[in-house]
């Protein structure tokens, strides 16, 4: 088993028409043993900007603290809110600095740009960026998520339809992965507001 799969995780980010959705499962495990049923893996960076951190739980917490510190320093030095593209390159740089002893985490960024256009970006352990026009997935359930997202995603979905597609993809994918699950959290980001939904899932 890869060290990135030790705790289990499932994260998906999807784009819609002037909206974006990012969601994750709630389970924290030690291989097959469930330790916690409400472990946070998607974090708010700004009002319309979130980052998901699938991977080793200790590195998730460490990397989140480092990102929060870097973003606060950016706000103080630049005197403006950080944009999704800037955040992606900032995190990529942080990961590449640790390439010889990397964080076992593959971040996924989701948000809206200054023009309220959807933005999603993924990266690997050493910060190699990977963009997509439709969706990005990560975690131990990523193989299942690919299939579900391919089936359910459609271009130019509104916030409600995008939420339904992402939620169904996430819940059905984790049902087929023993390392993730126990419900999900989904954030729907629109120009006006961000809504957070907690979903019930199988707990067996």
From TrEMBL:
Keywords per UniProt: Cytoplasm, Hydrolase, Nucleus, Proteasome
GO molecular function ontology, one term from the record: hydrolase activity
CDD domains in UniProt: proteasome_beta_type_3
BP GO annotations: proteasome-mediated ubiquitin-dependent protein catabolic process
Subunit organization: Component of the proteasome complex.
Function: Component of the proteasome, a multicatalytic proteinase complex which is characterized by its ability to cleave peptides with Arg, Phe, Tyr, Leu, and Glu adjacent to the leaving group at neutral or slightly basic pH. The proteasome has an ATP-dependent proteolytic activity.
Family statement drawn from the similarity comment of this UniProt entry: Belongs to the peptidase T1B family.
Protein name: Proteasome subunit beta
Organism taxonomic ancestry: Eukaryota, Fungi, Fungi incertae sedis, Zoopagomycota, Kickxellomycotina
């Amino acid at each position: 088993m890869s060290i990135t799969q030790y705790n289990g995780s499932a994260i998906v980010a999807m784009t819609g028409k002037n909206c974006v959705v990012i969601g994750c499962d709630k389970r924290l495990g030690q291989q097959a043993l469930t330790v916690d049923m409400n472990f946070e893996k998607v974090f708010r960076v700004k009002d319309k900007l979130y980052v998901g951190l699938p991977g080793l739980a200790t590195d998730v917490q460490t990397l989140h603290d480092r990102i929060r510190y870097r973003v606060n320093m950016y706000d103080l030095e630049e005197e403006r809110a950080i944009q999704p593209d800037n955040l992606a390159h900032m995190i990529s740089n942080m990961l590449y600095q640790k390439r010889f002893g990397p964080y076992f985490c593959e971040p996924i960024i989701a948000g809206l740009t200054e023009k309220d256009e959807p933005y999603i970006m993924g990266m690997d352990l050493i910060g190699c960026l990977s963009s997509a026009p439709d969706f990005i997935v990560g975690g131990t359930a990523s193989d299942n998520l690919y299939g579900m997202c391919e089936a359910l995603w459609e271009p130019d979905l509104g916030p409600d339809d995008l939420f339904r597609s992402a939620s169904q993809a996430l819940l059905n994918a984790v049902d087929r992965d023993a390392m993730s699950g126990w419900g999900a959290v989904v954030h729907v980001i629109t120009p006006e507001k961000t809504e957070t939904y907690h979903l019930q899932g199988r707990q067996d």
